[in-house]
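Listing S7. Sequence submitted for prediction.
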Amino acid sequence: MNAKPNIVFIMADNLGWGELGCYGGGSLLGAPTPRIDALAAQGLKLQNYNVESDCVPTRSALMTGRHPIRTGCLQHAPAGLPHGLTRWEVTLPQLISAQGYATAMFGKWHLGETQGRLPTARGFDEWYGIPRTTDESAYTSTFGFDPSVVDLPYIMEGKAGSDCRNAKLYDLESRRTIDEELTRKSIDFIERQVAAERPFFLYVPLINMHYPTLAHRDFSGKSEAGDYGDCMMEMDHRVGQIVDAVDARGIADNTIVVFCSDNGPEFRAPWRGTAGPWSGTYHTAMEGSLRVPFIVRWPGRIAAGRVSNEIVHVTDIFTTLATMSGATVPTDRPIDGMDLSAFFLGAEKSGREGFCFYLKNELYAAKWRDWKLHFYWMPEVNDMKGKLESPYLFNLKRDPKEQTNVGAANAWTGGPIRKMIRQFQLSFNQFPNTPPGQPDPE
């Protein structure tokens, strides 16, 4: 058996906190999720795992351990416009690959579409998936679509050392079948590495639950919640297939399996999801945007059935998985992620007190212990109330919906929260933030 643990990291797209059975949804919402629920029972379930405002910033934070305000990965850009991680950034697969791991990614990248910024130039040995966002699958079916002025969306593939190429058109039919393809390729990769007796890092950013929610035809009509529920059941099944591949090949005890979401739920009808007890959706600073599901299993090392409300941030996953693989994180730049390996393995506290939450270039909120201080108030997407002269303060345990401002009665919290913000922002002076669209260094 390999001394180094294998890592399988599966990430859903826009899956809200309250949609899985193990987080209060599942059958209650007409779409049971037995395989993911079982995974949660076998490991650690986090109730306070926090991400960024949407796909691009969260994925950049995962890949670099750095807040997106530092890397310039602030939001999605349409095809053909400059975006993504500069090649100066050091990615998680680069660190893990340097430890002798085989690395593969099957799924959505969203961190740069030009050669040199695609996954196989950023640490992955192989990739199959989409470079940008899933809603592009609907473009070619949209009334008035003009391919002469819009780049056609493609599923791409490639291997390290050569340019990625277009594999096939990403249209609505491809949308239906892509998660099946990603799962099949993931299982094949696992089998190859087990046969080669080589440790591996497998990153599977699935397409579900991003709109348009079109399930594989094998799952059409399976739920009691329409297309959305059908996709939920398909996603659960795909996760189960990958977990089964790990278990069937006798590597479960030496494999860290993670399942999580990149963002809070979708806000657009008819695809709107739910954050359970929390308010809001992604693209806001509400708790429903920040908190998403996170489950990690490592039999014999991570206790089964454990549940924690300790604060964990997506940047922490970069540092923690790097440490678990034997890698050392960069020391020539601010790394915001904390090493939480001791916490995952049984320590009671994560050690994280809080974090700053930016939406694009603006500090919208700061979360500290059980408190959230809002500087801008936008409870729903596009329902902007503006910058607050007197910030709103909420206690998240007593007021999970963030409805009652208790700032006047708890002014003492301003001291530690603003000290945390000041310490974070002072680092911008020594290490200037990368602006969006920054070209790669020569």
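Caption to Listing S7: primary sequence and predicted structure tokens for the chain studied. The chain has a mean pLDDT of 96. Residues 322 and 328 are 7 Å apart (CA to CA).
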